[in-house]
Predict the 3D structure of the following.
Amino acid sequence: MKILKGDKVKILIGKDKGREGEVVKAMPKKDQVVVKGLNLYKKHIKPSQGRPGSIIEKERAITISKVAVICPSCKKTIRVAYLIDKSGEKSRICRKCKSVLNTPVSKK
């Protein structure tokens, strides 16, 4: 999965279209990400012993096809490419400005 925790993303589809946020959690097996402060829903909590009932807001996971990574250097929405250097380290790069996005991706 090309979107990782800590990436800044822009929502492309849905009620939060056009808004930006940071990825809090990435779920590669489900192809979903959780973005901080976006795609919220209200959850009603029943009262229990010693705790009153309440309504809380939580973030819902978004499919990765509905978000785009924002490059920190050129500030544009991009597609991520990979670059493998001579030492064998794999890095994520911006397809538009060719800058390295963050630390190298570890091998598994």
Notes: The chain has two domains: 8-70, 79-108. The longest strand covers residues 20-27. The chain has a mean pLDDT of 90.
